Amino acid sequence: MGFLILRHGLIPRGPSTAACCMLGSGPPPKATYLSKPSLLWLVTWMLCMTGAACLPHPQNLSGSGVLWRQGADQTESTAKERLAALETRYLSTVVTSTSSASKCNSTTLSWRQEWTTLSATQKRGFINAVHCLARLPSKTNATVKSRARGVVTRYDDFVLSHIESTPFVHTNGFFLPFHRHFLHMFESELRSECRFTGPFPYWDWTLYWEDPGQHPVFDGSELSFGGNGAKISTLRQPTAIGIPGNLTVLIPPATGGGCVETGPFSKDQFSVHLGPVGYEPKGPDNGLGYNPRCITRDLSPYWSRNTSPSKVVSLIDSCGDDLGCVITRMDFDENGAPGGVHAAGHWQIGLTALDVYASPADPMFWLHHAQVDRVWTMWQGQDPTGERTRMVWGTQTAGNDPPSGEVTLDTLVHFPHLGEPKTVRELVSTVEGEYCYAYKATGVVER
Ligand SMILES: [Cu+2]
């Protein structure tokens, strides 16, 4: 197995990696190896054998690394073509569905765009608006704040809402609609309180699936979301994160590990107040206390492999009309192991973003979840009849633990401290009701 899973606190499964990785990892592999997974795994395997360093072994690396590499290249370039076709079909469905007499039509539709296609002014506008929200005072009421003293700013209100919602909105029937509206509320706040006027950005993880650090959103410039965390060279333990379904996944150390030190969200410019909640050591008051600190990141070319073009194509194509499959594949790979595209998006950013509860504390959360929403929308858009848009699946607790009722179109979704509950029906289409947006294709550059 490529990673370690503890179920209900039992012994990790997985043979040699278990013993090895539990000892901790040495310095992450040199960047020169990162775009060459076969070499990376060979080198880390050798280091692992000597006890110097260990990363999980890729599940599909067998026999010759070179052959695997060539096969992977071919698979991914074919998948990119298929992805483009899926995107085209989705866009034609959106255009058709908005050309009717509804208030959402081709002139009112707002387009969300991949980060790299934004102009410098648009990038600056979004970054400044996020900073603005992180300067505005919280609107959470005083009683709540007396038990959640980490809530100081308007930005923190969103982090708190996510923390309190987490047990009900992951790996279940609320996962996609909750996060769609959560982003919509965040976007609305940026526009109404912080004079944000540009397109809402998404981060297409498939673009740099071999090495997420190559994506310009992480280049550390003033027009990025900040760089990787500072490289920690001393031995580090894997981070044991709790995920829905009573599972613990050990996320091995990767290429950074320290504070974000470059760009607009560096330790001098942006501060996290709440958490950690989803891993140890928790922040004060179970992560609700005031715990000011930097954003930490640990970009991981291991997990980014799980967000390659072929993973997205496989999710959309192989799930067919099965929404349950789509939701499951968001968090579990094709073999049922933790690390679907949603999970792997968080895990390839690391460490602040690993916290299932408090992950919105890293502003990359918004760009990542816009891409998750985009994948859902693209899946919906493969069906011009609109039936996929009316589908619901799953129960009301994360991983159905504890067991709960089925979600229907009339079930209410709650957004603690942020706004009124909504029915699932109000949240399933991006071009109806409160919503009127679509995702512009990756690679369409705005001038
Ligand atoms: Cu979430």
TrEMBL record:
The keyword Metal-binding applies. Keywords: Copper, Metal-binding. It holds the Pfam family Tyrosinase. The keyword Chloroplast does not apply. PROSITE patterns: TYROSINASE_1 (PS00497), TYROSINASE_2 (PS00498). It comes from the Eukaryota. InterPro entries: Di-copper_centre_dom_sf, Tyrosinase/Hemocyanin, Tyrosinase_Cu-bd. Residues 170-187, 362-373 form the Tyrosinase copper-binding domain. This is Tyrosinase copper-binding domain-containing protein. It comes from Humicola insolens.
